[in-house]
Design brief:
Keywords: Chemotaxis. This protein is of the alpha+beta class. The chain has one domain: 3-Layer(aba) Sandwich (Chemotaxis protein chec). α2 crosses α3. The longest helix has 23 residues. It has three helices and eight strands.
């Protein structure tokens, strides 16, 4: 990707994440400067990923803390954070990675060709890391998450590897 393509893709990611998280889950995030790295960073404990193929192939990965996804799940389901169970956390993260992948791919594909999406996966990468490394360089799009429940800041990462 050229520098221009990187900015465009980064803009699509920011737009898609804002649409998804602010409108659906009432979560406030602020984008930070995207950067490139040689592999997924897995800075936070939870990760949801989705492989896709078509004119462009690769993987989208959302890496976040349990606190972030608990607050988003609580807001999405309209229940207290303490009532959210692990299955609901993982289901929310899988749904988020599915929706943001579809949104970004739709915005990036001017010809509106069909991309084939895999099945979203989610896990605690501190307990059971993903085995594969990235198929190529990874664009990391970091965000700052502002928690309403505990007035704290946290980080959230959308990582994209395109082949």
């Amino acid at each position: 990707m050229s520098t221009r393509d990187n900015r465009i893709a980064g803009n699509f990611v920011v737009e898609s994440m804002n649409e998804l998280l602010e409108k659906m889950a009432f979560v406030n995030i602020e984008p930070r400067e995207p950067y490139w790295t040689g592999d997924f960073i897995f800075e936070k404990e939870l990760a949801g990923r989705l492989f896709f193929s078509g004119p462009v192939s690769g993987v989208f990965l959302i890496n976040c803390s349990a606190q972030f996804i608990r607050e988003a799940t609580s807001n999405l389901l309209g229940i207290e954070g303490a009532e959210v169970n692990e299955e609901q956390l993982f289901d929310t993260l899988k749904e988020f990675v599915n929706m943001v992948t579809g949104s970004v791919l739709h915005k990036m594909d001017s010809e509106k060709s069909l991309a084939k999406l895999g099945i979203p996966e989610c896990r605690n990468v501190r307990v059971a890391p993903f085995d594969e490394s990235a198929p190529c360089e990874v664009m990391v799009c970091p965000f700052t998450f502002y928690s309403i429940t505990d007035n704290a800041e946290d980080a959230l990462f959308l990582e994209i590897a395109l082949r």
